[in-house]
Amino acid sequence: QVQLVQSGAEVTRPGAPVRVSCSIAGYTFSNYYIHWVRQAPGQGLEWMGLIDPRGGSTEYAQKFQGRVLMTRDTSTTTVYLDLTSLTSEDTAVYYCARRARIRSGYYYIFYFDYWGQGTLVTVSS
Amino acid sequence: EIVLTQSPGTLSLSPGESATLSCRASQTVSSRYLVWYQQKPGQAPRLLIYGASTRATGIPDRFNGSGSGTDFTLTISRLEPEDFAVYYCQHFDTSPPLTFGGGTKVEI
User: Fold this and answer.
1) E strand spans, chain A
2) Which residues touch B96 (CB under 8 Å, ≥6 apart)?
3) Is-contact A97 A115, C-beta < 8 A?
4) What is the pLDDT of residues A5-41, one digit of tens each?
5) Contact with chain B for residue A41, Cβ under 8 A
């Protein structure tokens, strides 16, 4: 079955970087884009960016440009999120999510059909 | 960037009642790009509706999505105890950035 399994919780200092991994199983790795979405405590969902596992191309939300990097390792079918220069405002649960795509006439419809379990990143001095 | 505004912020209802959740877009969007998710505490979001009105696999028929243009609605009829959660709408097209609404909490 489809599984997106994320790495464990992280506690880190302001200014430090963090890496979150998303290990994928149960389907062909290269066939689905993976997105990252975060959720600050008690807040809503915030889209961070995406990676195409096939070629590794990425697109990032403007807010994170310059301090976010999404990569993938096809040999281990794992996607990584690296975020640098952390502040307390980066304290959040980080999710990876699979983008499904279905055809509807001449168009495609998209949605997130599978999500990782979430990784809590706490930034604290 | 399309901004999605959800209302109300909180809906207080009882089991058996119906809930009507609104998602308003800052500009006209295609209904095929409007998605709804449900999120319970400590869990990842769960897909409910895509293409504004198509229920995802396994979603009960008491969940119904509708709307077009800038106004979209999620209706939950005959609320069950497990339906009390936070609901998010999302605009999901080919061009980032993707956006989510701020969420509506349905509480007892």
Assistant:
1) 3-6, 10-12, 18-25, 34-39, 45-51, 58-60, 68-73, 78-83, 92-104, 107-115, 119-123
2) A47, A49, A50, A59, A61
3) yes
4) 999 999 999 999 999 999 999 999 999 999 999 999 9
5) no
B3 min Cα distance to partner chain A (Å): 12
Tell me how far CA of residue B29 lies from CA of A23, A96, B4, B61, B84, in angstroms: 34, 25, 10, 25, 28
Q: Supply A75's token pair.
A: 């040999």
Cβ contact, residue pair B100, A117, below 8 Å: no
Q: Count CB atoms within 10 A of the CB of residue B5.
A: 13
CB of B84 within 8 Å of a chain A CB? The answer is no
- Identify residue B72 by its one-letter amino acid code: F
Instruction: Kindly tell me if the per-residue pLDDT of B94 is higher than 80.
Output: no
Kindly report, residue by residue over A57-72, the tens digit of the pLDDT. 999 999 999 999 999 9
Instruction: Find all residues with CB under 8 Å of A37, minimum gap 6, and list them.
Output: A45, A46, A47, A48, A94, A95, A97, A112, B100
Q: What is the C-alpha to C-alpha distance for residues B106 and B108, in angstroms, rounded to an integer?
A: 7
Tell me the three state secondary structure of residue A31. Answer: helix
- CA-based Rg of chain A, rounded to a whole angstrom? 15
